[in-house]
């Protein structure tokens, strides 16, 4: 159970990182704003020569996509946080019976030991002699 939770949390945090980077990029794209991009269009004229003209596209046409991706990213972050909280709650509820399990107490009485230190008697004192 713990291994599955660990991989779920790892996946959810990777998703949070990806979604936050995606949202930041999309919001910056919206803030920086519409920009006109000019690109050439080549075509054959009626007399058989290759001609070209320029067409423009504005990046503001992508604002709808940016907003949609940002909303998906924010919902993804919210869902991920909820899943993480649920997994954390489930893990603690599984461990709760183990934590609250009563352990029987055992009383141990050690016997009294009367021990008295008695230094042994030294009869001779040896003094080193200097030569």
TrEMBL record:
Record field: transmembrane: 7-32, 62-83
Key words of the record: Membrane, Transmembrane, Transmembrane helix
Name assigned to this protein: Hypothetical_protein
């Amino acid at each position: 159970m713990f291994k599955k939770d660990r991989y779920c949390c790892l996946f959810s945090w990777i998703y949070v990182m990806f979604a936050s980077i995606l949202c930041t990029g999309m919001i910056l794209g919206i803030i920086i704003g519409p920009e006109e991009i000019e690109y050439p269009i080549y075509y054959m004229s009626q007399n058989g020569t290759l001609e070209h003209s320029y067409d423009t596209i504005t990046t503001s046409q992508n604002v709808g996509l940016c907003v949609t991706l940002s909303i998906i990213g924010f919902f993804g972050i919210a869902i991920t946080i909820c899943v993480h909280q649920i997994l954390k709650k489930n893990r603690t509820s599984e461990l709760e019976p183990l934590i609250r399990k009563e352990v029987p107490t055992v009383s141990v009485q050690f016997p009294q030991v009367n021990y008295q230190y008695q230094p042994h008697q030294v009869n001779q004192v040896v003094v080193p002699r200097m030569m």
